[in-house]
């Protein structure tokens, strides 16, 4: 029985791999795509196998364009990759002999396939764009991680940490984003930014419409968010407000590698810069935390930010032996 089960699973893997290759071919016809949809909808196993093969294929195709990240890959991603990805790739009909290259690609790119889902992650100061098999896009900000699971009838992405922009492509299946206890559902072409915070999540809708639900265990009224609306979701409840295009641009300035300040306090600005840099800025004098700032700064240039602060306000900067920057009131 075990031999038959293993043979069947290998047959499903091989079929999924062949579909990935066929769909990637420019000569793929509408009839081919219809046949693929029929095959994929036959079972959850078919859909999960296809998503695994498609993710690995995409990584291999982009291997030559990749470069090593500045720091080590996420430990949990690397551990899962060693346990699950290598056996899957080595048994795949199209990937024999490419397992070592695939492991390198996965380690470099911060992506792991396991448990029917695929995890993508970024390091501190890193940004990454991920294109999914249905042409949906995920843009990850610094120190962020998502897990993608395409189950039968739903496309689901969980934001594990950090911040990301999700661009849902048109598809018959809803696109669901989970962040903490918040559940966001896009039924059409939509673009939304989600950021996890200590007390919940913030959601900014740039395009389309999104339904914001809590987890089923916490029944509350559904909130419909349209383009130009931002919402904050916490355990205490949700609240939404309309925001301008300019404010949306400031929220998403990180996509251009920038931080846009518009009246934030020095304490808030420092916390934002510290998300992107290993060199941390620390306020050692509480009397300056409330200073208000405005400006456009590069995320990975804390020294330029500090120079702007010290030249505008009565603030002085000093550097610790470990390289961190300390801010205090100038005497």
Question: What are the main properties of this structure?
Answer:
single chain; 331 residues; alpha+beta; Jelly Rolls; Phage tail protein beta-alpha-beta fold; eight-stranded mixed β-sheet; seven-stranded antiparallel β-sheet; 8 helices; 20 strands; elongated
How would you characterize the overall build of this protein?
The chain has 331 residues and is of the alpha+beta class. It folds into 3 domains: 1-116, no CATH class; 122-252, Jelly Rolls (Sandwich); 257-329, Phage tail protein beta-alpha-beta fold (3-Layer(bab) Sandwich), CATH 3.55.50. Helices cover 32% and strands 34% of the residues. The protein has 8 helices and 20 strands. An 8-stranded mixed sheet has the order 1-2-5-6-8-9-12-13. Strand 3 (128-131) and strand 4 form a beta hairpin. The longest helix is centred in the N-terminal third of the chain and has 23 residues, at 2-24. The chain starts with a helix and ends with a strand.
CATH architecture of the largest domain: Sandwich
Rg computed from alpha carbons, rounded to a whole number of angstroms: 23 Å
Please report which band the strand proportion falls in: under 5%, 5-15%, 15-25%, 25-35%, 35-45% or over 45%. 25-35%
Give the helices and strands as they follow along the chain: HHHHHEEEEEEEEEEEEEEEHEHEEHEE
- The chain-level mean pLDDT equals 80
Total helical segments: 8
The CATH topology of the largest domain turns out to be Jelly Rolls
Number of domains: 3
Q: In total, how many beta strands?
A: 20
What CATH first level of the largest domain would be assigned?
A: Mainly Beta
Unreliable spans are 63-109
Helix content: 25-40%
Assembly category: single chain
């Amino acid at each position: 029985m075990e031999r038959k089960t293993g043979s069947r699973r290998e047959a499903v893997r091989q079929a999924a791999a062949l579909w990935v290759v066929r769909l990637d071919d420019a000569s793929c016809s509408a009839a081919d795509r219809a046949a693929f949809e029929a095959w994929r909808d036959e079972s959850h196993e078919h859909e999960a196998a296809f998503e695994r093969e498609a993710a690995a294929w995409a990584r291999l195709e982009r291997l030559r364009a990749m470069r090593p990240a500045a720091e080590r890959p996420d430990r949990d991603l690397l551990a899962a990759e060693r346990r699950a990805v290598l056996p899957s790739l080595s048994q795949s009909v199209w990937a024999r002999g490419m397992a070592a290259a695939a492991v390198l690609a996965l380690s470099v790119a911060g992506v792991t396939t396991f448990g029917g889902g695929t995890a993508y992650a970024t390091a501190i100061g890193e940004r990454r764009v991920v294109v999914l098999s249905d042409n949906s896009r995920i843009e990850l900000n610094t120190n962020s991680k998502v897990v993608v699971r395409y189950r039968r009838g739903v496309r689901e992405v969980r934001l594990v940490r950090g911040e990301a922009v999700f661009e849902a492509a048109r598809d018959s299946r809803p696109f669901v984003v989970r962040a903490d206890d918040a559940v966001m559902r896009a039924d059409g072409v939509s673009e939304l930014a989600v950021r996890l915070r200590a007390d919940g999540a913030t959601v900014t809708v740039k395009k389309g419409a999104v339904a914001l639900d809590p987890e089923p265990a916490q029944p509350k009224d559904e909130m419909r968010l349209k383009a130009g609306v931002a919402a904050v979701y916490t355990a205490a409840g949700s609240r939404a407000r309309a925001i301008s295009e300019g404010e949306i641009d400031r929220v998403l300035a990180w996509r251009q590698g920038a931080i846009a300040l518009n009246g934030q306090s020095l304490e808030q600005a420092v916390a934002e810069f510290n998300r992107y840099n290993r060199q941390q800025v620390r306020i050692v004098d509480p009397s300056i935390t409330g200073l208000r700032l405005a400006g456009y700064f590069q995320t990975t240039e804390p020294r330029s930010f500090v120079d702007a602060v010290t030249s505008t306000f009565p603030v002085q900067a000093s550097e610790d032996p470990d390289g961190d920057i300390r801010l205090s009131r100038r005497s």
